[in-house]
Structure prediction request, 416 residues.
Amino acid sequence: MSSEDYAILVMSSATILMAYLEEKSKKRRKQRRWWQTDLYKKRNGMEILLDLKSQQISGQYKNFTRMSPTDFENLLQKIGPRISKQDTYFRSPISAQDRLSVTLRYLATGDSYTSLQYVFRISKQSISLIVPDVCTAIVEELNDYIKLPTTSIAWKEISRAFETLWNFPHCIGALDGKHVVLQAPINSGSEFFNYKSNFSIVLFALVDANYNFMFADIGCQGRISDGGVFKASKIHSMLTKNTLGLPLPEELPGRSMPVPYFIAGDGAFPLEKNLMKPYSGSYAKGTPQRVFNYRLSRARRVVENAFGIASSVFRVLRKPMLLEPEKAELIVMCVILLHNYLRTNSPNLYIPQGTLDYYQNGVLVEGSWRANEEMTSMLPLRHIPRRSNPDCKQIRDEIADYCVHEGVLPWQNQYA
Prediction:
């Protein structure tokens, strides 16, 4: 055999071998999956909102998005440039309107991404990217809706609102904390395990007299005790360093002792000069301690109502979040900012009459949100007794004596 014939034979053998291997590889290779299923190809998210908007009087649009069409469009205009994606030759991107509507529906219901994909015809993988992206845009764009006052004049305006609406002088806000329940984070051990045998992060919030959040500190691990949670919060650091810009202590009407401006809290917090808590134990009717507890309870209920309204409207807070702690923090902050946004723009639509607690001739009438309180995943902090500073006790006694004598309510001796 000549060298040329041998070369031809080798090349032919190599070609046959390569063809054989290619055919064998095709048989082993799985059939390529489709680019998009028919479910997602037929997506038309605008159709849902248009149908709901055409029958706005039925209330279904508000139930679906938790806001009016006007508020939805205003919010979309604010965050639209942040969440819009560029069009390509392969396929059209998911519109900013669809991204916002699927996020609001997730916040409104707390449904799984798998459930939402059948409503919006968007894959659960895409939804898992859309929700954090849109929540981040909302937090960045609505950041001005939650802000602490920086001047003594602004703090005094809040104090006057508490005194006018809730008959509690020198109060500049109601503070409370809640455990937001999570699914056990991966490789976290007992770091987020709280006293209720759940995994959670802690939400600390300061609320004004009109149920608006002024401050929120989110993310402390659930295993930390209530005292540790408060000391780790930014509001405690600001109180300690005196950087809140609070007014100087002033005498109550008809009194001579200067009383600091303070935050109202419950038994989970320590008694401090700028943080008042109720007297522990039970007291007879008409005593200064009982009257003080009654007045403090009136003022402190605004933060309970704010939590209750937020969790009853945005029901993602009613279920254990199947998210990592960092994303859960983002979701909670987004809900708080949307609460303030809707309280500012559509207060009557967001909180209809009868939703909040109110007092009628001194008798508490509970709001409708409390009917679903047991369904919430926002757990209270644990109350731990602790010794109080004698100077702080004197300040509390002065406020209690004022409430009994100079600041008497027509019905307080009957109910308090």
